[in-house]
């Protein structure tokens, strides 16, 4: 199947993400001397692989009784949290730093999340997200550092 995408079905896992195709890269395969396949996670509903781990984390938070999602991000993780929150019917707040592009903020809002712009860099946004997660029922979805995301 060199150069072709493998057939896949829309078998949604937890209704948050699905199995994505592999595409053989002739250029990379030739460079390294073996078959190299690219996993097309960009076709996920949230636009990146982040939905797999973050979706899993959000689903487990819901199962534990949490009612709200709080996340900090400047991009894909925030979009994944917003998408998961919408699909799981959990109100979601994403705290982003001032450097976050307007189009990213718009995409997060389009998923139904509340967006708070706080701090010049992600670390400052994350501190605010941690504070918000102390509200009863709110669960902090870290953009990368959590067992359920790995």
Range of strand content: 15-25%
- Tell me roughly what share of residues is in helical segments: 25-40%
CATH architecture term of the domain at 50-141: 3-Layer(aba) Sandwich
Report the count of strand segments.
Answer: 8
* N-end to C-end Cα span: 31 Å
Poorly predicted runs? 1-13
Give me the Rg, rounded.
Answer: 17 Å
SSE layout:
Layout: E1 12-13, E2 17-18, E3 22-24, H1 26-32, E4 37-39, H2 50-63, E5 68-72, H3 76-88, E6 92-96, H4 102-110, E7 114-117, H5 122-132, E8 138-141
Parallel strand pairs: 5-6, 5-8, 6-7
Antiparallel strand pairs: 1-2, 3-4
Summarize the structure.
Helix 2 crosses helix 3 and helix 3 (76-88) runs parallel beside helix 4.
Q: Key terms for this structure?
A:
150 residues, alpha/beta, Rossmann fold, four-stranded parallel sheet, two-stranded antiparallel sheet, 5 helices, globular
Task: Explain this structure.
With 150 residues, this protein is α/β, with parallel strands linked by helices. It has a domain at 50-141: Rossmann fold (3-Layer(aba) Sandwich), CATH 3.40.50. Helices cover 36% and strands 19% of the residues. The chain has a four-stranded parallel β-sheet, with helices on both faces. The chain has a two-stranded antiparallel sheet with strand order 1-2.
